[in-house]
Amino acid sequence: MDLEELGSVGGFFALRTGTPGEGQLPLARLYAGGTAPLTARIDTVASRLGQGPGAPERRVAASIAHLGLAARLWSVALGAAALHGQLPDLDPELLHWDPDRSSPDDLRLTAGRTLPATADSLRETVQYGHLVPLADALRSEVRISPQLLWGNAGSALAGAVRALHAWAGRSGRPEVGERTSALAAELFAHPDLSGTVHGPAMRRRSCCLYYRAPGGGLCGDCVFDRPPGISAQRS
Predict the structure, then answer these.
(1) Residues 6 or more apart whose Cβ sits within 8 Å of residue 161
(2) pLDDT value for 233
(3) 87: Cα within 13 Å, side-chain hemisphere
């Protein structure tokens, strides 16, 4: 698997391998209840959004943190499957995460095992292996809707699809776009992801709440055409 080529698709697709660096811990530890790294990540995002750690709208930071990690996971997995016909084994025991860093320094895979590049493998690896326990961990820290989190997951997957199609067009690799579309169609057929996005542009049907952050606006795939009234933002 050519990780350099994978990373060339975009920042979310980068993956490093080898011995974990300082601060990188297996995601399995977070999913087992050691949520301190997740709390730290939410605090970091809240600070960047202009919200203190104890701000009432902490769920906004939690949603953005979740969306970012979901995008990383889908991008690495779907990108490898579409480009190289194989999937890195992103077992939570093997995939280490640093909540204080961004791509490409946030994730490190400690073993080079691969899986078949099928929708079933992608679903088991990302959706069941990470997104389900990640949502449970997040909701133990912050009150946030499961529907919103699945909307984030669908939006993150759609973002990876768009990036791969753009890369395939730039690189003259139509087969990558074709594999991406076929895999995405199967993934979006799952009940948890079905209906999270719609139309050729894959516009999401829920909101990640970014518009509620100080100075925030609408994302490119937002369900809204204009920010809703936010007079109750701090309620």
Answers:
(1) 78, 180, 181, 184, 202
(2) 41
(3) 23
Backbone angles phi, psi at 213, to 5 degrees: -75, 150
**Contact yes or no for 126/95 (Cβ under 8 A):** no
Nearest to 69 by CA among 23, 19, 30: 30
pTM score: 0.92
Report the C-alpha gap between 97 and 200 in whole angstroms. Answer: 33
Q: List helix spans (H) across the chain.
A: 3-7, 27-31, 36-48, 58-84, 119-122, 132-141, 146-171, 174-188
Q: Which run of H or of E encompasses 96?
A: strand 95-97
What is the C-alpha to C-alpha distance for residues 36 and 122, in angstroms, rounded to an integer? 27
Give me the pLDDT at residue 52, please. 52
The string of pLDDT tens digits covering residues 109-148 is 998 889 999 999 999 999 999 999 999 999 998 999 999 9
Measured over the CA atoms of residue 223, residue 196, residue 50 and residue 71, the dihedral's sign is negative
Q: Distance between CA atoms of 112 and 78, rounded to whole angstroms? A: 16
With residues binned 3-state (H G I as helix, E B as strand, rest as coil), the percentages for the chain, rounded to 5, are 50, 10, 40
Position 41 pLDDT exceeds 80: yes
pLDDT score of 57: 81
